[in-house]
Specification:
- With 114 residues, this protein is α/β, with parallel strands linked by helices.
- It is 42% helix and 25% strand.
- It has 4 helices and 5 strands.
- It has a 5-stranded mixed sheet with strand order 1-3-2-4-5, sandwiched between helices.
- Strand 2, helix 2 (33-48) and strand 3 (53-58) form a beta-alpha-beta unit.
- It starts with a strand and ends with a helix.
- The model is unreliable at 110-114 (pLDDT under 50).
């Protein structure tokens, strides 16, 4: 399930609260064609990787978030991956395979210490 974030405070609270979970943030706009195209695929991935948390942020509703956190967003969609309150990677693309590869990479890391 994907949760939508509407305010800066929500973003910060999520990053600080779920430190041992892989967090995936989709920064999008409603007018972006590639954003619309990837949305159903992003939904499927969020169901497949239920041990991760998935979020969407409409940059037009929350445009100050990029400046406040100095986020590496230059085009849409942009996907940011966080764990332990740290930005791990970002992808500025609508290639769902790249997104899934990063999720798998960090999910492997989650189980490496077991």
């Amino acid at each position: 399930m994907i949760q939508q974030i509407f305010e800066i405070d929500e973003f910060q609270k999520i990053i600080n609260k779920y430190t041992d979970t892989l967090l995936v943030f989709d920064f999008f706009t409603t007018w972006c064609g590639p954003c619309k195209k990837i949305a159903p695929e992003y939904e499927k991935i969020s169901e497949k990787y239920s041990d991760c948390l998935f979020f969407k942020i409409d940059i037009e509703d929350c445009d100050d978030i990029v400046d406040e956190f100095n986020l590496p967003i230059e085009k849409f969609p942009t996907f940011l991956f966080y764990k332990n309150s740290a930005l791990l990677e970002n992808i500025q693309s609508s290639d769902i395979l790249n997104i899934e590869n990063i999720i798998q990479k960090y999910n492997e890391d989650l189980f490496a210490n077991l």
